Structure prediction request, 193 residues.
Amino acid sequence: MNKAFLAALLFPLLFAACEAPPGEAPLAGAKMGGPFTLTSQTGAKVSDTQFAGQYRLIYFGYSYCPDVCPVDLQKLMQGLSLLEKQDAAKAKKIQPIFITVDPKRDTPEVLKQYVAAFHPRLIGLTGSEAEIAAVAKEYAIYYRKADGGSADAYLVDHARQATLFGPKGEPIALIPQEGTPQEIAAELAKWVS
Ligand code: NI
Prediction:
């Protein structure tokens, strides 16, 4: 068998292997997520194990973010609220979680006010600089304090990503945070069973 023939034979097989079968989660097998213990907006220690059996919709950001985070959170939580109206049982299986990338300013008190503005079930998590750095790395979220600003007035560059994780903490799909509430509700409904 000559090499060209072999390549012609193998190419469609290799190509086919790269296409996810229909219905398979886009992030299945991705190295994202893992254990954490952080502090919630009530001051309680919260670990990933507390969400066992629940889907988790996780968004990293910071409360002082001037435009992106509040817009994304609003849309995501409107989508979740819409799903609550369409299919309450399904929506109930999803725990929305906001994790700060600015733990210095996002204390539990600050987060408490912030998350309440978006959804009654949204949990806000903060921690030490080291704890946040570790969880961001684990969840493949890039963030960095922007140049300029002062000690208490500064911006934080960060990945803009809403990720749905499954009942065992496995990554499932990115949720299009820029979509309409209808699109977000449909995307959530698609993956939650
Ligand atoms: Ni932001």
Observations:
- The chain has six helices and nine strands.
- The domain at 24-145+152-191 is CATH 3.40.30.10 (Glutaredoxin).
- The CA atoms of residues 24 and 120 lie 31 Å apart.
